[in-house]
Amino acid sequence: MTAPAIELKGISKAFGAVQANKDISIRVMPGTIHGIIGENGAGKSTLMSILYGFYRADSGEIYISGQKTPIPDSQAAIAAGIGMVFQHFKLVENFSVLENIVLGAEDSALLRPSLARARKELKSLAEEYELNVDPDALIEDIGVGMQQRVEILKALYRKADILILDEPTGVLTPAEADQLFRILGRLKDEGKTIVLITHKLREIMEITDTVSVMRRGEMVGHVQTAETSPPELAELMVGRKVLLRVEKKPATPGAMVLDVRDLNVTDDKGVHRLKGVSFNVRAGEILGIAGVSGNGQSELLEVLGGYEKATGTIQLNGTEIDLSGRHSDGQSRRARGIAHVPEDRQREGLIMDFMAWENIAFGYHHEPQYQKSRLFMDLAAIKQDTVDKMSRFDVRPPDPRLTAKNFSGGNQQKIVLAREIERNPDLLLIGQPTRGVDIGAIEFIHQQIVALRDQGKAILLVSVELDEILSLSDRIAVMFDGKIMGERLPEQTNVKELGLLMAGVTGEAA
Amino acid sequence: MQKMPQWADVVLIPLISLLLAAILSGLVILAIGEDPINALKIMVEGSMGSKYAWGYTLYYATNFIFTGLAVAVAFHARMFNIGGEGQATLGGLGVALCCLYLPWPHWSLALLGAIIASAAFGALWALIPAYLQAKRGSHIVITTIMFNFIAAALLNYMLVSVLKPAGSMEPATPKFPDTTHLPNFSEMLAPLGIEFSRGAPANVSFLVALVACVFVWALIWRTRLGYEIRAFGHSESAAKYAGISPTKIILVSMTISGALAGMMALNNVMGEAERLVLNATEGAGFIGIAVALMGRSHPFGILLAALLFGVLYQGGAILSQDTTIPVQLVLVIQALVILFTGALDNMVRVPLEKLFLAINKGRKTAPKAAE
Amino acid sequence: MDFLTLLQLLDATIRLATPLLLACLAGLFSERAGIFDIGLEGKMLAAAFTAAAVASLTGSVWVGFLAGIFASLLLSALHGLASITFRGNQLISGVAINFLASGLTVLIAQSLFAQGGRTPSLSGDARFNPIQWPGALARMREIMQAGPFQQFYSELISGHTIIVYLAVLTVPASWWLLYRTRFGLRLRAVGENPAAVDTAGISVVGLRFAAVGICGVLCGIAGAYLSTGLQAGFVKDMTAGRGYIALAALIFAKWRPWYALYACLLFGFLQAIALRGDVIESVLGFRIQVQLLDVLPYILTVIILAGFVGKAIPPRAGGEPYVKER
């Protein structure tokens, strides 16, 4: 029996307190395409970055073609015949294609002969694998599809036998993705081993021979693609962990609070992030937005929160909101009754170096209750308010002078929630409410959200956790590629159906 | 889990940095063949040994309080204002024009006028780089450096071609009118029956500097604006989420910073020289960087750091009179302080954090082991 | 203005542009690798002093020259330690280095020579002397009577110190190193996207230290030239802001070697005519404030930085310590 091309044994890796990989083992046979699937943050990229020497594992062993191979840095990985195409390309933007390809793999101290050889080599690779690129074009002038080819060529130029691709189709159009798969198929025929990291079931089914499924830093299953099905994979991926039952009565939706029509967002790079998004949320209901992250949910929250420009119309309680960014910002949105628990509390929701009481006023620091006079803030009032909020939201330790970064994830989130929910907003935007939060706090946070709904408030919940969406939402909308793929009622749908919608597969195909 | 108690961050790290700087400076003194202990004695005696000495030390400290506060306010918004020198130069110009061309009946009114003039001129000189940073993305460090040179040339031009009295060879303004004379410590303390050295230059602007400390403290830690400045400085993305405008914060914080740097002229131009001369700032704008770093951008820390640098400057001057050690020793110490408290912060911080982590672990596990 | 005056002006331009050019190229290597360096001034100053001091003590300009480079390299190593190893603030480190050099040079000068922070005047083999090219005229009187070509040859081409010629050669050499060698490719890459370099299996830290080292050598040559070529000995703060003008020239040149040459010649020319107020007056018919000429490099740089005349885009990874993203 041939030795596996790649064998990882007991790989573990922690970033600070976060265990990104827990005792992971995996075998990939040569000449196959192996998929690694899992939700965002499941630890797939970390695992492959360890194989490529970008990170160092805390423990575990790597075998390449049966040989134990320590990989302390990328140089060792390259020497072992491993190439990797990262999700965020590692290209020098103002270099030519050719220069990017030879970088680090030059033949000699002089550039000219290296470039000449690379040019020749590139030509033959292009013919062999259908990988045509203009060698003299600058990276910043070519599209992402082309840039990805350059990354693949970089690996092939270094004689890689093992090629790792991290979410390669995330930035591609369907046609480009199809072309990529043809190329991968040809590479496989040439005897190369390919590892494909993805969260898209369709891709796994279409191209891989074997699949490993990861969830929360752990490997939860290895299967032959031919012997599995999308629903089975979706189940493995999302997990059948104990559904956190949230006690809630049926919703009694009232008046329309938020009405979004034909929302479009294009970012600085010209990428179309939101494509004609329309939906509405009524008083006393929770609309859950499901979807793999990076499909436009963040932009949606930013637009509603007032710090991203958009076109289209949004009405709040029947009056239109300015979307041009000229007359509105986070503060004017708050004044109109929109509270926002952002997806990334460490980057946006909190100032990590501020004390708890300073964070309790964050975004609301203009409110009259916090002012002593026209100029001065009433620190005593803010601190008192913080003490009250901390006790009502059971923040531990209840010390208003402790810096935000010194609270656990769950307690950080409670601080943000306390600040936003207690404003009694008409509409609460809440992104990833329980990301990085311990079980105990999850329950508490869910209860708070439901309680707010029962007070007749409208809630827009964005989460990549399907469980959470299913147990909290009164209606569910699924986002994929900047669009709403469809709306479902939680009692009439299931993980499988939502998982397929999240992967961009609509009804008939499933 | 807290890595390190706050007192270690605020007190211990600056002290260790200072100690490292002091040890290295001592080695430098040894290397040039002098006795560091003796040098220290002379410096302490020369800067704090008499009322006269204090009069100079506090005079220097006044300069450094203003420029240190200026750098600190900008630091809070994560702007590195390296242009304090130029802003102080412009402040001097403002003071000179104000004192020379407006009729002042009394020094107190003149002081008010000069505060406005110096702050306005300094603020203007900081506002242009701030605008270019906020609107055009020009790096504030480079533009403020350039503006230092432009300010020096502008002052040179004004003194040589505009303000110099006819017939004078020296590029300097005429002496300011007597009504703009600021009381020095001796004059201030005499009514209280306290005698103070008459020759020492410390003057009433020291009190203005103290007020400025309180002002900055209140601004940064008590007002909404200060809250927004700090929020922006810590996290631009969070500031945007909260609806704080980056443009506004950059412009406002740099304006305040420039105004504070400009107000240094109250002390050196109006209080001491009583006329405007070339290179009046004598590098005090740059010392502000060391003072702000050392004082951890807190007005109270800045006050202490400014006093320390006042001691260094006065002590260094005396040292150069009494020994063969030139006054530039102070520059070396200043450089080492900036190096250790600024650029090499991690060198001191990381081992210390590890130490505290180990101590904490030890504390936690010790009782268990005893059970 | 007659032809000879013009030649004299250009001759002064070349001499004054030389230290700017060397420092500018020094900054170019450092900043192209992603390490901002506002400590050019300090490194030049340290080198200027060390070169003059050692030349004065040994009587050999070349020993002094090497010592000057060594001094500059020491400060470079400090900058590397702070900004690469300890990931400190590159700007603050640069500021500290400038003060350190400004203070230490005088301190040591005073301790060695006791001449108020100067070194003794250098002469003979202790300084770089002008090289007379074959057939060139040395005496002013002869040159005045010679034809225009001979004037051009004798005044402008001949009669500079070796460092001036070296500096001019450094421009194509830098260009070649940056754009024609493996090292140059990697160096430019690490200033644009260190992650690309890291994943290509090359050490980011090693490359950046190499760049900072080259910066130190070039600053060292620039400084040594100041005290042993342009002038005959060290006086305190003799760099007089040249490190900052070089920084301005670097921005003006948009971080490219040939443009650095043009920018430094322009700024050198401004310095040269600032010394010859009489010439300007005779050419333009009115007086230009000498201060305006002094600050023109800075004003031009601010205008460039503001993006009003072509945008100056610094290397993308400049000023940021490299930390692998999580």
TrEMBL record, chain A:
Belongs to the ABC transporter superfamily. Its EC number is 3.6.3.17. It is a peripheral membrane protein. The keyword Cell membrane applies. It is found in: Cell membrane. Signal peptide: none annotated. Pfam families: ABC_tran. It comes from Flavimaricola marinus. Keywords: ATP-binding, Cell membrane, Hydrolase, Membrane, Nucleotide-binding, Repeat, Sugar transport, Translocase, Transport. It is an enzyme of class 3 (hydrolase). One of its GO terms (cellular component) is plasma membrane. One of its GO terms (molecular function) is ATP binding. SMART domains: AAA (SM00382). Coiled coil: none annotated. Its main location: membrane. Residues 6-241, 258-506 form the ABC transporter domain. This is Galactose/methyl galactoside import ATP-binding protein MglA.
UniProtKB/TrEMBL annotation, chain B:
One of its GO terms (molecular function) is transmembrane transporter activity. InterPro entries: ABC_transp_permease. It is found in: Cell membrane. The chain crosses the membrane at residues 12-33, 53-75, 87-104, 110-128, 140-160, 200-220, 249-270, 276-293, 300-319, 325-344. Keywords: Cell membrane, Membrane, Transmembrane, Transmembrane helix. One of its GO terms (cellular component) is plasma membrane. It is a multi-pass membrane protein. PANTHER family: ABC TRANSPORTER, PERMEASE PROTEIN, GUANOSINE ABC TRANSPORTER PERMEASE PROTEIN NUPP. This is Ribose ABC transporter permease protein. It comes from Flavimaricola marinus.
Automatic annotation (TrEMBL), chain C:
CDD domains: TM_PBP1_transp_TpRbsC_like. The lineage of its organism: Bacteria, Pseudomonadati, Pseudomonadota, Alphaproteobacteria, Rhodobacterales. It is found in: Cell membrane. The keyword Mitochondrion does not apply. This is L-arabinose transporter permease protein. It comes from Flavimaricola marinus. The chain crosses the membrane at residues 12-30, 42-59, 91-113, 162-179, 200-226, 259-275, 295-314. Signal peptide: none annotated. One of its GO terms (cellular component) is plasma membrane. GO terms for molecular function: transmembrane transporter activity. It is a multi-pass membrane protein.
